[in-house]
C-alpha cells in the first residue's frame, strides 16, 4: 500500500490509502469461505454463482455439493431466518 496522491493544491486535505496490488493469499478468495463473503464472485451480482472455495452457509458444505443451492445460495449470517435453517441442519 502507498499513500494516495494528494489531489488538492497546496498539500491540504485528508490523506488516504490506495490499494494498488496484493501478494500472497487472500482468505476470501483462496480459502474456504461463506458464499456471501466471496470476492471472486460478488454476492450482490448473482448469489447463485460461486467459486470453488464457496461454502453453503446452511449446510456448511462446499456450495458445489449443496443439494439445495437454488434456495441456500441466498443465505446470509445476518438473516435470522437463515440462522435458524443453519441450526436445524446441524
Automatic annotation (TrEMBL):
Against InterPro entries, the record matches this protein to: RPM1_Interactor (IPR053234)
Region annotated Disordered sits at 1-23
Protein name, please?
Answer: Uncharacterized protein
